[in-house]
Amino acid sequence: METINKKWWTSPIDFFKPKSKAIQESNSENLVTPKSSAYFSSNSGNSRLLFVSSFDGEKNLGEIGPAQQYILNYVQLRERGWGFYLTNEVVQIIINRMTVWTIGRGLKLESEPNESVLLSEGIKINPQAFSDLVESRFSIYKESKMSTYDGMRNLSKLESACYKNSKIAGDVLVVLRVIKGILKTQLIDGTHVMSPMYGNDWNPQKLANGNRIMNGVEMNDAGEHVAYHVRNADLTFSRIAAKSPTTGLTVAYLVGGLEYRLDNSRCIPALAGLFETLAKMDRYKEATIATAEESAKTTLQIVHEANSTGESPYLQQIVQARDVSANDGTIPVDVKNTEIANKVAVSTNKQVFNMTQGSKLEPVEKSKAELYFKDFYSVFFDLVCAAIGIPPNVAMSKYDTSFSSARAAIKDWEHTLLVERYNFSLSFNQPIYEMWLHLEILQNKVSAPGYMIADRQNNYMVLASFRNARWVGDNVPHIDPLKEVNAERLKLGDTGVSLPLTTLESATEVVNGGSSKANMKQYAKELEESKTAGIEVAQPPVQNPAP
After folding, report:
1. Which of 217, 213, 188 is nearest to 199 (CA)?
2. How many CB atoms lie within 10 A of CB 60?
3. Full-prediction pTM beyond 0.85?
4. Picking from 198-202, 310-314, 441-445, which range would have the lowest pLDDT averaged per residue?
5. Which of the four pLDDT bands, split at 50, 70 and 90, describes residue 408?
6. What DSSP element (H or E) covers 48?
7. What span, in angstroms and rounded, lies between the C-alpha atoms of 178 and 146?
8. Is the dihedral of CA 88, 91, 96, 99 positive or negative?
9. How far apart are CA 320 and CA 514, in angstroms?
10. pLDDT-derived band of residue 323, with 50, 70 and 90 as boundaries?
11. Are 284 and 377 in contact (CB under 8 A)?
């Protein structure tokens, strides 16, 4: 028996379909007579239409325009990025300030082996001793030029260059090479990473092994980067594997700037969406400056009345500031032996117009664009800064606002820095550290019981516990440190009055005072030398407990 539709509504498609006799009889018996104009009658009964239409974000036809799907041109985006960095001061200000704040003198390793996980795997270590040794050795390695492939700069400088290049151009290829037992890091400009024959995001090159090449990146079916194809100076191509065949660790990877879509194989410049705005800002600035310059050239005008003879009052003083006859390079002088170039009346940088009788030269009026230049330029500068995630006052190093607004901006920037450093260190620093630590353990420079067994067994929990680390940079200074500390003290209440809010290591990092351990040893040495020299050291006063 055919099922009878008892719904109170019918779609337009179903409404006009031929209906069986049973459905027609059911419609005529069960449906109520319509009471609204939204209903209508037909041979098949009374129904209420449900209109179905697609929604593409446009409520009123033509208000948004046609939808566009962008196919990224990585080559031109990269070149535009470098072009704007070279010629546009706004891009230089933002990129340079972000690099200085995010990387600064280099991110510092904080080794944090997970003791709880290691104990659960039956491995017992001294985490503090392990961290102290690893951090000390890596600090020496990172600040040495032996850590880089070209040997021209240390890893901290390479770190800064990688961050800047990824923001400007889109991405950078990092290659780790082990030479004579030493790990060396190499940066390759992303412009050299390209497909040998063809292959992009929408038309990849299929290989015989099942992998595909898109914009120089070879991927497997899971989307994992398998290798990178780099064009050499002689126009040949080199295939650089992403993983080491012996250790399985990452030895080549891309550090990107701005990710667009999941299907895109490469990253784009951080300011890619702002190029047109930046270009218009630059043209507006150049036009305003040129107008002001041309207006400044006309400084004086001579206006003659109706009965004027038309003669110039400066006629006897106007001369050229050069010796026409002798041409010996000296500046002409007047009868009082005074250099003529020092007189305003004959200054070669100004112009004096002797107007004929009945004529008048009007000066160029001050442009409204010049009057409102600051308002226009600062608004769009703020928008550009907000788009990339840096406060405008931080970018311009101008802190002339109130305490509360400045503190809010700094706190917001502090959080942005933490996220920015985390993302960058996870991409750039962590693979380097994992390979370096693996080599150090293999060479018995660092003791890590159970590490090699876990490596053979592919026990990722043990390996990840040993490699666990975080990367810290220079701290954002407090606007008023005393107010910050007192506020935190009030939160602790009376029971937390004597509790410390920081450690010696953290305090040293805040004031950028180097290594806390080295400072402590040096202070102990100086204190001992002061006692030998007979210098009395004042003892802190003893506080009697309250009754």
Report:
1. 213
2. 6
3. no
4. 310-314
5. confident
6. strand 45-48
7. 11
8. negative
9. 63
10. very low
11. yes
Which sign, positive or negative, has the C-alpha torsion 458, 463, 465, 469?
negative
Beta strands per DSSP E along 193-317: 205-206, 212-214, 217-219, 225-231, 237-241, 252-256, 298-302
Q: Fill in the DSSP letter of residue 272.
A: G
Predicted pLDDT at 426: 96
Which amino acid belongs to residue 283? R
CA dihedral 88, 94, 100, 103 (to 10 degrees): -110
468: which 2 tokens? 């666990």
Q: How far apart are CA 104 and CA 473, in angstroms?
A: 7
| Residue 157, H or E segment | helix 155-169
Position 62 pLDDT exceeds 60: yes
Which two structure tokens, joined as six digits, stand for 355? 């107007």
Concatenate the DSSP letters of all residues of 423-462 into one string: HHHHHTHHHHHHHHHHHHHHTTSS--TTHHHHHHHT-HHH
For the cut 50, the answer to whether the pLDDT of residue 347 exceeds it is no
- Assign residue 104 a region: left if phi > 0, alpha if psi is -120 to 50, beta otherwise? left
H-helix or E-strand containing 296? Answer: helix 275-297
Give backbone dihedrals phi and psi of 300, rounded to 5 degrees, phi first.
-130, 150
- The answer to whether the Cα torsion of 476, 482, 485, 490 is positive or negative is negative
H or E element in which residue 185 lies: strand 182-189
